[in-house]
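Deliverable D4.2, example record:
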Amino acid sequence: MKTLLKAAVTCVLVSTVSGVAAEDPPQQWWRGNTHTHSWWSDGDMPPELITEWYKDQGYDFLVISDHNVMQQGETWYSIDSPRRSPERVRRAYDTYLERFGETWVESREHDGELQVKLKTLDEFRGLFEEPGEFILIKGEEITDRFERHPVHMGGVNLVEVIEPQGGSSVADTIQNNLDAVVAQSEQYGQPMVVHLNHPNFHYAQTAEDFFNLDHEPGEGFFEMYNGHAGVNGHGDALHQSSERLWDIVLSKRLGELGRSVIYGVATDDAHDYTHWGGDASNPGRGWMMVRSRWLTPNEITSAVKRGDFYNSTGVQLKALEVGGQRIALEIDAEEGVEYKIEFVGTMRGADLEPKSAVVPHAHQSRTDHLHKTVSTWSRDIGQVLQVTEGASAVYRATGDELYVRARITSSKLHDNPHAEGDYEMAWTQPLVVGQAD
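Output generated by the structure prediction step:
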C-alpha cells in the first residue's frame, strides 16, 4: 500500500512539473451510516467486527457513534457482565478471537470476570481504510435528556467528545447540544454535522420542539428514518411518523416562521450484530447516499451540510438533480421491480395551525408517558403533489410550493425490515421553492 501511495504522489509531482494539470475526479455517490453502536457503549460486538461487516457489504464510510464516548483512551469491556445479552456477547468474543487472534485481542481476568481491552479508533482504522474505497469518520451519540425525555444527537466528524449540555426544555436541550457541535466546528475549522436521533423514541420529541431551532443552513438535521425496531418510526394512531414530523417541521419553519431548512437523514442505529430479525436493531436497514468528489471525512461532511445526499433502504438512484425550481431523478432500476415516485410538499397558504387532542388513558403505554396531549395537523401539510409510475420522473415547481421532496417506493420488500411489510424506499432532500416570477 505504501508503495502504491508513493507512486501516486510521484505521478502527481511529475504531472505538475511537466505542466499537465491534474483533473478533479468526477462526482460520485458514497454509501454510509452515521449511527452505529459497539462494545464502547451498548452494541453487542467490538468495533472491528462491525467495521468489517459494513465494509464487506459495500459501504464507503461509517461513523461508530457510541453514547457519550469516542473510541479513545484505555477502556476494558466485561465479557461476563456486558450491557447486552451475555450469551450473544460471548459468541461475539469467540468470533473476535477467531478472526483477529490472541495477539490482537488483549484479555485479562479482573475481579473474577473476563475483560477485553477495547481498541481505539486510531488503532483499528488502519486495518480497514483504503483511499477511495472505505473510511471511518469520528463521531458520538451525545446522549442527553430533559426530565424523562431522552434527547440523543449524533455528532459526525467531531474532534473531541462533547458532553451532554442539558437545557430548560426539550427544545432548549436540542439547541444547546447543536450549539456545542457548531462551536467545536468553529474551534477546529472543520465541518461537522449533528442530527437529532429517533424523534419518536418514547415519543420524546414533537414537531413543536423543532419549530424555533436556531441554526444556519446546513446545521439542522434529524432522523426521518431509523432502523431500530423500538423507536416507533412509523408512529401510531395518536402520533405522527418520523417522516410526517419532517413535513410538519418543514412547513411551519418555511411557511410561517422564516426559518432555515431541516434535512432528514436515514440511519441504522445498529446495536445487534449477533442475532437478526424484526425485533433486533440490525445493521444494513437504512443509509445515506452522499455525493462528493472525494471520499474523506471533511468532504463527506461538507456534502451532507450542503444537502447533497439522499436516503435509502434499498432503492438506488442513477441520477438526481434538486435545484433550479425542479427535482429530476432516475432510478437504477432492478429487473422485475416496479417503482412509484411521489413528490410530497406543502403549498403556500396551507393551514399550519395545530389542533390538540387528549391521549386517552386506555391508549397509554410504557413508552407513551411523556405527553398527555398530541397535536393533529392538516392534511394540507405534506400532501402528494404528483405521482409517477416508473423509473424516472421530473417535478417542475410552480412557485406556489413551500418545498417539495421526492419519495420512492419499490415493489420489493425489505429483506430485514424494522417493521413488517416495509418495502425498499428512497427519499430526496427538500427543494425549497422560491416564488414564481
